[in-house]
């Protein structure tokens, strides 16, 4: 239930009344003082004096805008205060503020409008007692004003006017289910972070993702709007409830949310986590989760606070995946210190980098599977996706994480790399359908790459993978098999030096 504040009593008075000192304020009766102290609705002299000084010491236009903004902030803060229950309904508030604004505006011979439309009058007790509910109004403040008594019923319900928490989902699908299940606004991470570039800075991150997907028109506008809504929620001063799952894509998104949240609130992130689904949905080959609004309603009581230590660990994971070196590089740290998710995701990242097979330079594991599903016959992305073979089966496991859009994008990248020397040939097919927009087949160069490997690292189509780029001649990272069960990633020149030794 929202609180009741009547602002309809604000009225203009003669100029002499406005010249009364804002430090003194009007006389307050015993019952009014008791109600004021019980509800916490009063402002210090420092606030009103600061308002007066800031409004009178600046140019006219700036002073008016500053007074309006300050009045809005103060009025909204009064309306949103959490107050104790009180049987006294007469409360005097905002007197010093409005008098100070009146004096400041009078000095500039300007009239402003008090912003009181957000102070809503909804009653519980007033209706029960047969009294008419208070009204919302907009009152003009001229050369001097003094408000009448402000009435408030059930001050304890003031915190219901503005929600104390904000919901963020790590994917659009989770956000949709939570929004429908709880009927609350939900911001969400707008795309799949298992593919494409990432950055520690949120603004740089947004621009890189926008460029990677090649958004245009309304699609790009929606993406930017969703990202800025999510970032605004992360930077909010309210408690954040993060809805996520055990999928790798949601894990990476949660790391980013924690990193950006800690940047704003390093000492107290104030995050609660709701994990949907179960542990069987984690790991390679598990790229989707089935979630209904009823599931969201059942899980809302399972929210648990995220400790500062755990939030810092997740932020460190985000810095690793968005760093300038692959996670499994020699400078990436020891895997023994990492969480299970980071170990698995570092191996996943390595699957997009070209490999050193002895002294030969081979395609990445993902591209090797992709080329194995192509031949000299024309194939659309759909044909590649449904290819019946062992390579096709493994490729589909990768695509549960990357999505089918990435398949069409990667084929297009290979066909457009190096012009006439491209590894894939292409021809238009059905431009209105991205999974059938073109047909592809191996060129002679592609057939040679499939059989003998890469002649040089620049022969491969560059692919941004989080903070680094695979097949980049300027930063030639390659995956090598270690003596253990895990891979590691080295610079090509380092590997060559080891081979000479």
TrEMBL record:
<protein>
    <submittedName>
        <fullName>Uncharacterized protein</fullName>
    </submittedName>
</protein>
<feature type="compositionally biased region" description="Low complexity">
    <location>
        <begin position="15"/>
        <end position="27"/>
    </location>
</feature>
<feature type="region of interest" description="Disordered">
    <location>
        <begin position="1"/>
        <end position="35"/>
    </location>
</feature>
